[in-house]
Amino acid sequence: MRVWALPLALLALVACVTYSVAYRRSAEEPPVIVPLRQVSVDPAQLAKRLASMQAGWPRSRKFDCARLKCVALTFDDGPGEHTGRLLDLLSARDVRATFFVIGQMVAADRGGLLTRRIVDEGHEIGNHSWSHPPLAALSHEAVHRELKYTDDIVEHLTGVRMRVMRPPYGATDDGVAAETRREGLAQILWNVDTLDWRDRAAPTVAKRACEAKPGSIVLLHDIHRSTVDAMPAVLDTLSRKGFTFVTVSELYGKTPLPGRTYTSR
Ligand SMILES: [Zn+2]
């Protein structure tokens, strides 16, 4: 063995150990991605996921939202402990929504199960940064990292390259727009704010969400129990009013343009 081979072998060993530990949480460091083979896979789920990797995903259902009363429900800051229950509620009613996920929450989602469910069950998934800072306050490089780390971990887990993002706090500027354009992401804001992060009462959240107009994008957060509690009433009331629930891309009938900002149809 050559003199330099031993230190090199030790270095490789350390690198392997580092690779297999949990995800790093710092916004400064890229996520350490657990290889998929370490995750137990249900063949039916795998088949669905493989289908979702095909060109043309998401297989947008066609809605003419110029004629129909369409509404896009959007859920930020997850996936979290209430996301599974929300997915159950949406699936039972065959409702599709859009989830703007935080990279660190995806990293904490054991085996990416909720993240994969979001994609497998036909919802749109969007980038809500890696660590939820106000992006407009960051350097271009930092904004790039916030977007790219989340793009990469979601693509690794689901096979899907995201096309939409939501800037944390809705805080954006020309610099953020330029980075989102480079990363191939449209900026999606909202025109109905349920303030569900502040008012943790399901009836209040439901009342505000039901103020949606045709073409509205409704801001909600699936990390709050009260928000998920509000959803049966929201879905029932908006259905009764004749609304069709669509994803953000379905609302526009095409993939929104990278870098552009959208608040409603
Ligand atoms: Zn947020």
Describe the model.
41% of the residues lie in helices and 12% in strands. It contains 10 helices and 9 strands. Strands 1, 2, 3, 6, 7 and 8 form a 6-stranded parallel beta sheet that branches. A 3-stranded parallel beta sheet has the order 4-5-9, with helices on one face. The longest helix is centred in the middle third of the chain and has 19 residues, at 140-158. The radius of gyration is 20 Å and the shape is globular. Residues 10-25 have low confidence and may be disordered. Bound molecules: zinc ion. The site of zinc ion has 5 residues, from loops. Zinc ion (ZN) binds at residues 76-77, 128, 132, 168.
Helix and strand topology:
Blueprint: H1 5-20, H2 43-52, E1 70-76, H3 83-92, E2 98-101, H4 103-108, H5 113-120, E3 124-127, H6 140-158, E4 164-165, H7 174-183, E5 186-188, E6 192-193, H8 202-209, E7 216-221, H9 225-240, E8 244-245, H10 248-252, E9 261-262
Parallel strand pairs: 1-2, 1-7, 1-8, 2-3, 4-5, 5-9, 6-7
Bound molecules: zinc ion.
Question: What's the overall average pLDDT, rounded?
Answer: 86
What molecules are bound to this protein? zinc ion
Radius of gyration (CA) equals 20 Å
N-end to C-end Cα span: 67 Å
Query: How large is the share of residues in beta strands?
Result: 5-15%
* Low-confidence region ranges: 10-25
Briefly note the structural class of the backbone.
Answer: alpha/beta
How would you sum up the global shape?
A: globular
Portion of residues within helices: 40-55%
Count the DSSP helices: 10
The major pleated sheet works out as: 6 strands, parallel
What letter string, H or E per element, gives the SSE order?
A: HHEHEHHEHEHEEHEHEHE
The total beta strand count reads 9
